[in-house]
Amino acid sequence: MEIINEINEKRRRYVDDFLSFIPIYEDKKREIALKNLLLKNRKFIKNKICVEAGAGKGIFSKFMVLLGAKRVYAVEESFYLYKILKENVKDEKKIIPVNKKIEDFLPDEEIDLLFQEFYGSLLFDESLLALEKIRFKPKRVIPDGGALWCMILKEKEIMEKDKIYEKNWKEILKNVLVSDLFPYIKFKPHFKIFEWNYGKDFPKFIKFELKRKGDFLVFSSEIKDKGKSILKTWETDTWSLIYTPINGKKFLFEFNYENAFTEIKFKWI
To answer: What is the mean pLDDT of the chain?
Structure first.
């Protein structure tokens, strides 16, 4: 979904945020996996003070109340989503809606658990780096880890299924990251590029050397908690695969998070 007409830039950003959330709530596999994770960690929730970062409609805030949370701060930056959030939790006395970026939120009490789902297709391309800037120290963060994987795709595999593909695509798309370029491709992870765990330094510069030859790289991410896989995003309906032509043996990612936006730099070295 995209905005077609010309509108104010600030309003465009709010509407973009709103549109990006719509398919998330259609992804039941994603919802079930994260609810199961909360269920397994209910000892950190029952009678505890919790935060849902990027609360959206507040479905996980409601679930934490169902699991016995004493109080849940549902923190949502988007003004439009915040209005929806307030309406959805208006009957929940234990949920406090907060219209702020998570890095600007400073509670008056100690937080036992922070629940977040800031993961992107490239792991850090959404808001995961915001966790580095939060102003409070939760006793537990759920989920607390993740990994970025890649698959090497050969031109022959593409041409077998895509009748419009031509070899000059590789030159046109050189150094460009493109989502959903070949939607019929099934992702099979070949190499783990890096792994992230909350509490350790965020790897904002990632250098990787390929172990085999091919024509396109395909990226996808995995959500983890305590080192265990929670959800492989390539098995869901709402996370895009990211493609780029192979143009060397080594590549570099750089992620920079500022003002609720992550800038991604990518190049072959």
So the answer is: 92
Q: How far apart are CA 120 and CA 240, in angstroms?
A: 9
Among all chains, which residue has been given the structure tokens 């995995």? 222
Query: Parallel, antiparallel, or unpaired: how do β-strands 113-116 and 49-53 relate?
Result: parallel
Q: Which helix (H) or strand (E) holds 14?
A: helix 9-21
Question: Could you give the count of Cα atoms lying within 13 Å of 269 in the half-sphere of its Cβ?
Answer: 13
Q: Cα(203)–Cα(190) distance, rounded to whole angstroms?
A: 21
Q: What pLDDT is recorded for position 256?
A: 93
For the segment 233-248, what is each residue's pLDDT rounded down to a tens digit?
A: 999 988 899 999 999 9
DSSP letters spanning 168-189: THHHHTTT--EESSSTTPPP--
For residues 86 and 217, the answer to whether their CB atoms sit within 8 Å is no
User: For residues 119 and 146, is the Cβ–Cβ distance under 8 A?
Assistant: yes
DSSP 8-state assignment for residue 202: P
Q: Is residue 49 within 8 Å of residue 28, measured between CB atoms?
A: no
pLDDT in tens, 3-46: 567 767 777 666 766 666 666 667 889 999 999 999 999 999 99
Check if the beta carbon of residue 21 is closer than 8 Å to that of residue 55: no
140 — alpha (psi -120 to 50), left (phi > 0) or beta? beta
Q: Evaluate whether 48 touches 111 at the Cβ level (below 8 Å).
A: no
Is residue 221 within 8 A of residue 148, CB to CB? The reply is: yes
Q: What's the sign of the alpha-carbon dihedral 186, 188, 191, 192?
A: positive
CB atoms < 10 A from the CB of 72, how many? 28
